[in-house]
What we know:
CATH class: Alpha Beta
CATH topology: Glucose Oxidase, domain 1
Shape: elongated
Number of helices: 7
Structural class: alpha/beta
Largest sheet: 10 strands, mixed
Order of helices and strands: EHHEEHEEHEHEEEEEEHH
Strand content: 25-35%
Number of strands: 12
Radius of gyration: 19 Å
CATH architecture: 3-Layer(bba) Sandwich
Number of domains: 1
Helix content: 25-40%
Amino acid sequence: MTSAADTLTVNPPVVPAPAALIEALRAVATPHLSDNLDRLSGIVGLRPFHAGRPFVGTAVTVKTRPGDNLAIYRALKDMLPGHVLVVDGGSEPNNALIGELILQYAQQRGCVGFVIDGAIRDSEAFREADFPCWARAVSHRGPYKNGPGRINVPVAVGGQVVIPGDIVVGDADGLVSFPQAEAKCLLAAAARTAAREDAIRAEIANGQAQQSWLSAVGL
């Protein structure tokens, strides 16, 4: 007799990114990362259900049948501190894939955030805990637990392909993801962007109508 677990494909677990890299990325705003990813990368269409705390972590990915969270339960068992759960739930808004109990269990496993292309419930619990959670919708309807599902495979979430092990950064402006191999170059590029914007702020403060940064765009 086939069990529900037999419907799952479980690939090897993801090793969290180095702590020093994660710490360095905490100081970087998502727009600076986005600008230096040619404005092509980034997760859109999801909204935050927490109080606003930013996060940085390493993606553990789940591809699940819309409205079914069996694969999510299985993925959580392999969670390590620093992981972010990234779920391609097919953008289904009617059946919640996670709720308060999964939130509490994920916290115990060291998960630092959820990115859910689907629905959640118990939304007030996420606000009260200020546990980073981005999702497509909220619904009181619970999930099915039959499968199928795939763990640690490439997924599509909010228009962005996320690969297991990618870095995910979330703040008040949204979500970006990128391969770990690009992180050091992105940090350097983002620092240059921040310095350029600091110079523009200083120029704006001089009160002059003519500004060099406006000339750079033909004005």
